[in-house]
Amino acid sequence: MKIEKFFMRNKPNDDVDTSMLKAQNGVCEILCDTEELKEKITKWATFINYKFDNFADFIQQAGFKTPVKLSDWNEERASFKCLTATGKEIQIFLYLGTGFEYEEQISAEEEERKRYSIKRNDRKAKPKIFLRKSVTRKNDKLLEIFNQDFSVYYRLTVNGVYQLNIDIDEPGYSIGKEKRLTLQHQDEIKQYLLSLENLLETMQVYEQLMKLLNFSEIEIQQTDWIKVCYHEIQKEARTLRSAIILSRGKLKEYAILEEGETFHVIDNGDWIYIGNGMKINYIAKEDRYTLKASGTYEQIIHINSVENMNRIKNKIFQLWWIFNQ
Questions:
Q1: Which residue in 176, 180, 189, 269 has a CA-CA distance of 20 to 30 Å to 300?
Q2: Burial 222-261 (b: 16+ CB within 10 A, else e)
Q3: Where are the alpha helices (DSSP H) in 101-252?
């Protein structure tokens, strides 16, 4: 819920002198340019049961140094500018009951937007902020990071066509602990993903992520799901081209793309082939094949040739050894 839907519009007071609010330690940390902005943030902080005098704590938890100067309240967007002690300017957006969001222009090629949620383990204790989502645009790349309660999800899209989807659950023994293992080294993971030139090598991406997270073999075995999947997007359809999916350390699905053909195997014996204008689904439990094909008469004849089917099945069988490692 955006804050403007809750607050009554107040007439700004242009005659108000610049006001400085003091934190509990007596150090001047927050500077508001108008009384209206002070009142808006005070109402927001009151609604989430947090004293405005310590609004600087939120800024600090988001990684910015105080004192800060707040200015230019925008009623429609429920936002204002924040100039930090290091001279960095960000735009903050308030959300009732959930937290706040800020956007930052990092460089001419890169911009970032982050949303923080208010998190309380104890109603009597001071609330903390939790980075719920971040969106980074860098040239032709869009990286979205979603921090859930028990997992982290990364989605990297290049040119709106190529997409890498990564889902990493928290190892079971660490669930509920303050120190989230999946949140470690997130800046390094972000920079690594933004530097990727080849999204296709999902096995290589998986191995690098485990190194960056410093996951041990035991921690991998205590994780419900680790998924690294590469898709190609055409209009609104997504086609899986490469993937590695593990559950508690055991491989459940694996897919590779070779010379335009996708070979996708699943631990229950099912497999999928996509290429040369056709898609073959094999259901092991029923020992049944489903074929979808399109093309010229000659192409259809080639697709259904015994030699072609044998070639596909041989390649599929070559991949089964991965599940027995």
A1: 269
A2: bbbebbbbbbbeeeeeeebbbbbbbbeeebbbbbbbeeee
A3: 186-195, 202-213, 217-221
- pLDDT digits over 227-264, tens only? 999 999 987 788 999 999 999 999 999 999 999 999 99
pLDDT at 325: 63
Beta partners for residue 146, in sequence order: 133, 153
- Cβ–Cβ < 8 Å for 240, 264: yes
Pinpoint the alpha helices (H) of the chain: 35-47, 55-61, 186-195, 202-213, 217-221, 297-303, 306-319
Cα–Cα distance between 119 and 49 in angstroms, integer? 12
Residue 280 tokens, joined:
């073959």
Is 177 or 94 the better-scoring residue by pLDDT? Answer: 94
| Spatial CA neighbour of 155 closest among 143, 170, 141 | 143
What lies within 8 Å, CB to CB, of 174 at 6+ separation is 180, 181
What is this structure's pTM? 0.81
Which long-range CB contacts under 8 A does 45-54 form with residues at least 24 apart?
47/6, 47/96, 47/97, 48/96, 48/97, 48/99, 48/118, 48/127, 49/123, 49/127, 50/118, 50/126, 50/127, 52/21, 53/21, 53/22, 53/23, 53/24, 54/23, 54/24, 54/126
In sequence order, the 6+-apart residues with CB closer than 8 A to the CB of 313 are none
Helix (H, G, I), strand (E, B) or coil at 28: strand
171-185 average pLDDT score: 75
Amino acid identity, position 308: N
> CA 128, CA 92: separation in Å to the nearest integer?
17
**pLDDT tens digit string along 187-217?**
999 999 999 999 999 999 999 999 999 999 9
| DSSP characters over 216-260 | -HHHHHT-S-EEEEEEEEETTEEEEEEEEEEETTEEEEEEEEETT
